[in-house]
Amino acid sequence: MKVKEKRNLILSIVAVLLCCLYLFILESDSVVHSYAITIIERSCIYAVAAVSMNLIIGFTGQFSLGTAGFMCIGAYITGVLTIPVEMRDQIFYLYGMASWLHDIKLPLIVTLILCAVVCAGIAALIGWPVLRLKSDYLAIATLGFSEIIRAIFGWDGLGKITNASYGVSNIPEFKSIFECVIISAVCIVIMILLVNSSYGRAFKAIRDDDVAAEAMGINLFRTKQLSFVVTSAFAGVAGGLLAVYMRSAVTSTFTVALTYNILLMVVLGGIGSISGSILGAFIVTGSQEWLRFLDREYTWSELIPGIGNTGFGAMNVPLLRNGFRMVVFSLLLMLVVLFWNHGLTGSKEITWDRLINGAKKLMRSKKEKAVSEAE
Amino acid sequence: MISYLLQQLLNGLSLGGAYALIAIGYTMVYGILRMINFAHGDEFMMAGYFMIFSLAVFPWYFAIPFVILCTIVLGVVIERIAYKPLRSAPRMSVMISAIGISYLLQNLANYLFTAMPQSYPQIDILKHVYTFGNISVSRVTIIAPVLTIVLTFLLIMLVNHTKLGMAMRACSKDQETARIMGIKVDNIITTTFVIGCGLAAVGSILYFTDRNTVQPYSGSLPGLKCFVAAVIGGIGNIQGAVIGGFIVGICQIVITAMGYSVFSDAFTFALLVLILIFRPSGLFGEKAVQKV
Amino acid sequence: MADKNVVLNIEHLTMQFGGVIAVNDFSAQVKEGEIVALIGPNGAGKTTAFNCITGVYHPTNGKVDFCGETIANSFKISHTPDEITKLGIARTFQNIRLFPKQSVFDNVLIAKHMRAKQNPFTATFRLNKSEEQRSREETWQLLKEQGLDKYADWEAGSLPYGMQRRLEIARALATGPKLLCLDEPAAGMNPQETDELAEFICQIRDKYNLTVLLIEHHMNLVMGISDHIYCIDFGKMIAQGKPEAVASDPKVIEAYLGTQEERDA
Lengths: 375, 292, 265
Known about the structure:
The complex is a heterotrimer.
Chain A: H1 2-28, H2 34-59, H3 67-82, H4 85-91, H5 99-102, H6 108-130, H7 135-153, H8 159-162, E1 168-169, H9 177-195, H10 198-208, H11 210-215, H12 220-246, E2 248-249, H13 256-269, H14 274-290, H15 300-303, H16 324-339, H17 352-374
Chain B: H1 2-33, H2 40-57, H3 60-83, H4 91-113, E1 118-119, H5 124-127, E2 129-132, E3 135-138, H6 139-161, H7 163-173, H8 175-180, H9 185-211, E4 213-214, H10 220-233, H11 238-257, H12 261-278
Antiparallel strand pairs in B: 1-4, 2-3
Chain C: E1 6-17, E2 20-31, E3 35-39, H1 46-53, E4 61-66, E5 69-73, H2 81-87, E6 89-91, H3 104-110, H4 120-124, H5 129-145, H6 161-174, E7 179-183, H7 191-208, E8 211-215, H8 219-225, E9 228-233, E10 236-241, H9 243-247, H10 250-257, H11 260-264
Helix pairs in contact in C: 3-6, 7-8
């Protein structure tokens, strides 16, 4: 046992160091590697959102779909409080920024904490009536909430604060890739610690059997409330990070489709597995980039060189045009739900033991194949 | 002033009628499968697109039944592909599957018909405008509530006084026992989807004729509102869903008329929260007792 | 009545679901250290009475006092199940309700959550390690005492049936109860297992200073260990007293076996 634990610790340290090394390489020449950097930053931010969604859906068994709404709140708070003071008049040229807000500029970390606090407070308010009831109503109420948030932030009446439908732009970007990765990592680590604590066990008890959990002295409402509040707080932080990443906060980013996209990451990674959600976030974000070609119109000659002379080459490849990528993604989500509903990780955490055992099995089967072929 | 109020009231009734027809689909599916059919709003959106294409080919009296038929086929196919394999899966999987279908339909519409709003064809017989003094109403505004009430009446007759209706009620009470009693539960579920989608198609004609455009996301918010309407009326209760639909529709028009159109959606969800606090089983729902 | 403290006092408990009166004007007392059984044919309202005591249902009428505190009454101010567990009433379920996908150890550990002196902040940031440590040690202790320690890493759902019942009792004990409510603990057990269970119940009563309220069909089990028996039928109490007295009560026999004429017919 002890040897294994030591080995796992060493492996973890090595893995973290390798990641750091890779990030250093990217950072050392951030112009050349800008594409990789954007993908990694985006993945990290979505990983925070996905893990936070998994906390309530996968660990507490409550179906909350408010992620986009809370991200929207976080994004606007971060946007409004971090844009440089001298640019504000220019950005808010139409409405003029409210004077009490005009000169308040906070460091990123402080605004992110503020995002978490505000989102937690709002979550506590809407959770109070809704969490007492069945999980279905939570889904509808949070989905509705997220649409309301969008409407309110885009409302002319709040133009002095949110710049209404124009949104907030010119948000200062991350100082380096480390800023984004470290903040995301800290958020995820906090959630992992919570899930593995006594409260995390209470979440799982409610998910598995709420009547029995209650008989064990777990206060259903307060525990669900805690989970919902933490989920929303981290969704708010993820929204803040996303605003910094995109350098703008506009309501059209935070549609229900964003929530669905994050749900795809959670389901693909495995509901109830944090490492799965992180993996899901990276895979979905990465492949959404790689599959961009699906959104472009190609002629056959562009795809297969040499075919151009046949007259066939000038024709467009069927299906490929704007929007096809998202169709492929939604089909993917359906396939995972229908045929592979445990996701990539089978709802369990990825551990070194699992990885090594898996690798061993793979080696063995290859060896056996080789042996049988030799015979 | 009074004419303005009356005008708004008529508009509210018309919108409420469309909402009521969609809400019936939610409430019936929830009653039998205990799931929120998140895709229902998008089926309604697709019905809008079907109308655009079928009216380009057929005259209106062929186009309307054709659209209803297409929507029913779409709904039944969705049920077979996405919900039936998950009958014994946890309820959350079914809901995720429904969300997946909703996402797929939206993206598909976006891909096939582009994100630009398409103009909804004008059906002349529906658009005929009557004028009474200061009030001018199109025929659809009058037809909508009347048609809704007639269809609801027929549906309630079906549910309460036919063998099929009895089987449906049995399934919603207890599927296992209904199965043992020799009811083909899968057929009943299909029937439910047929009725729900048919009504949604009718609702979509009433709704879009007044709104003039269809776009890929125009189903999602009305869909949510109609589910709220179903909850307000007491989920699983058809009359309740209709009354809930009218309440939501009229409230929306009244609030918009007062100049707070931003908050008309917010109000619907505030209504949901209020209902959940004070009457969790809805206005007409039965209180459920949990078995331990 | 004067010699021992009354732990649980049920007065005129009535529970009505729509037109069905599941429990009708039921009164009973459970004294400290006793094993009290609640018997009756299927559908007599035993589990409903139980659910009123443990806060799952709010009674239509009447009240339940536990150690002098009213825990359930007809007003909306009754306690919720978790509050009642905290006061010291633990229960098991008729159809076992473990957390089947979690380990045996975790199943018991969950019961320690309610009494741990922690808040979400200290728990997340591990500021109170001794508390977590203590919970884990107590859980080990309990598993050892119940002979479940060798299964600690098993998935609870994969245990044999009898073990699952025992685990459910262990989990209830882990909440630190004064009163243990067992809902048909012998259901699905063969005679030998039932005898072992009877012995086990007496053992844990003495070991943990418990009072036990028991719902059971098995007359053998009930007769052997109970100090007092209440028999209900169609929600109404039809007999109470010492086991021998209840066993020979004609009304009880009638409720279980039907009237003489029905038997002759």
